[in-house]
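Database export, one record per block. Field names are fixed; values are copied verbatim from the stored entry.
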Amino acid sequence: MILAAAAQVPPESTQQAVGYPSLFLLVVVGALVPVVPTGALVSSAAVVALHQTAPFSLLVVFGVAASAAFLGDIALYWLGRRGMRSKNGSRWLAALRDRAPEERLAQAQAKLRDHGVMVLVLSRLVPAGRIPVMLACLMARMPLRQFVRGDAPACLAWAVTYQLIGILGGSLFDRPWEGVALAVGLTVLISAAPTVWRRVRRAPA
């Protein structure tokens, strides 16, 4: 779907009018419901912006991605805090627990004790690391204000990282769809690498 859209590039004004709000909405949704490949979306948007003639396109993509990720994280953390205070929990808190295996949650809790809110920055950059660390913060009863201080630089670093992946892919090809294909491939590879590594380590010798 992403590749087909990139292969038929509409005028820049249409891209900007539709693309930026769509990117914002999808990243927010991806932060709340961690099934949307938000990293691939940001990288793909960076590829398209790289091939545009409009000034500051890449800067706008960065701002939209970072602010959307931040808003989604804060909303999810707020919903998680409500679930922690409720006797019966909540579906948002249950979803967080379902996506945080005990081993990874224990690691996140240890890192949170050792490094404080700075672990949030790393959690945004490590594939599948955000949810265990967020749940560890919830279980530690971290105030929302303190979470915000750690999550803001985390979202900035995340947006920069995936935008650089898109710029790398886009700079190697003249056609945007080719750069999008490479950027999506790189983000999928990065996301899958930790899972593959854990399975290799657990495999019997």
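Remark 1: Residues 1-9 have pLDDT under 50 and may be disordered.
Remark 2: The chain has ten helices and no strands.
End of record.
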